[in-house]
Structures are given as C-alpha cells and as structure tokens.
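Cross-posting from the chemistry board since nobody answered there.

I work mostly on the small-molecule side, so proteins are not my area. We synthesized copper (II) ion and want a rough idea of how it might sit in this target. Sequence and SMILES are below. Is it possible to get a predicted 3D structure of the two together?
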Amino acid sequence: MAILNRMLMYVSGAAMLATASPALAGEGQPSPWQMTFQNAATPIMEQITSFHRFVNIIIVCIALFVLGLMIYVMVRFNEKRNPQPSRTTHNTVLEIAWTVIPVLILVSIAIPSFRLLFAQYDFPKADLTVTATASQWYWTYDYPDYGITFASIIVQDADLKPGQPRLLTVDHELVVPVNKNVIVQVKAVDVIHDWAVPSFGIKIDAVPGRLQRTWFRAERTGMFYGQCSELCGRNHAFMPIAVHVVSDEEFADWLAKHKSSASLDDATAEK
Ligand SMILES: [Cu+2]
C-alpha cells in the first residue's frame, strides 16, 4: 500500500514536486523512495530547491500545453474530419506570440537562475576556513587556522555502529559550527574528484594543481553526507563525505581536543 501511495504521488508529478513532501526527502542523506532533493540545510540549497520547483512547474505547463495542442490537432484536423486542409501559410499575430512568449519564459527563468549563480559565488566573510584534499580514495581535511589535519576514511560495513549509514560513514567527519560561514578550499593530489554535499547545495570539482573554493552556512546541527561526484577510479564509490554540524560550544570543545599535536598523531595513527 505504501508503495502504491508513493507511485500515485510520483504520477501526480508537478503538484507533488512543487510541494515536496518531507517524508520523501532525506535529512542529510538519501532516504528510501526519495523523489525530491534532500532537505535543504543551507540558504543556497533552499534557493536551489525553490528554483528547481519554479522551473519544474514551467516545464510541466509547457509539456501539458504541447500535449493538449497535439491531441486537439489529431482530433480536430485528422483526414476524416478535415478532408480539405486550409492552405494558410502566415499569421502575424500567431508568429509574434510564439516568438515573444518563449522569450518571456526564458527571461523569467534567467532572472532567478542568475540570482542563484551570483549567490553561490558571493563569498561571505569567513568564520571558518577548511581545506578538503582529495586522494584516491579518501579525503583529507585541514583547518589551516588551527593547525588541524586529518584523513577521513570510509567505515567498512562490518565496523558500522547502529544508526550509521552504509557507504556514507567515515572515521573522522569534517566538524563545523552551525550558522557560521564556512569557506571550503577544494583540491586534489592525483586525479579529479568532486566534493559534493547535497543538503548544502555544494558540488565542486577537486582538480589537481588548482585551488577551488566554495562556501556554506549550515542552519541546522546534524550529520550531512555526500559522496565523491567525479568518477575517480576503482574506489570512487567508497570515499564519502561526512560533515558534522555542531553548536558553537561543541565546536570549541572539538577544537580544544584536536589542537594539541598529540591527539592529532593519535588521529593519524588510527589510519
Ligand atoms: Cu574521488
């Protein structure tokens, strides 16, 4: 029954997507039968989600309009009902309409699209800068202002603790404070990888020899997962990204614990 319900919701397409039921969206990770984006955890992802809904409604309206026209033509102007076709070739009003209306539709899409693009590249003042370095096949995170460096490696299925998602859990997550502007510098040491966290609206290539930059401001605490999103070799599917968003106090505690080089060595020795 649940499956039938889900299928009915899928069929109802635009209306469903336009009102994205939270049950179908994952919180920080994908969920079974997920049809929409994961719940937005940053203002940028909220903007991406609403832009997606807006464009989706336009797409569905156009598709229905064209379908309606085609059905009308097939019924009204088929050979039986319309044996003597008209030889009309031009209609100025119609030609202006079918030129101007699509232009207006494209402009209405371009405005929010550019607004979103500018917002993604409008870097706020950094509260925290971290560096994500991709290697075959794991991530290394640096906190340059605090001298913290650690590798973040997938946890094998056999070692998962209850509640930890398979293929997404890592031994050391990237820990960041909530409601703070985090600048992420992304680079790679071997081949092209991609640092992607769906709930943050981030997907940025890690390119050897090039320093890329993105940013996010997580508005909720919790675990947010992503995966390498550029085919990078044999273990491409096994270098997940896990971001642990915590309160300011928890972050301060975490920093204090990891700042001393002794605990750092421990963290690296575990690898
Ligand atoms: Cu990769």
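Reply from a structural biologist on the board:
Welcome over. Reading the output above for you: The radius of gyration is 25 Å. The longest helix spans residues 43-76. Happy to explain the token format if needed.
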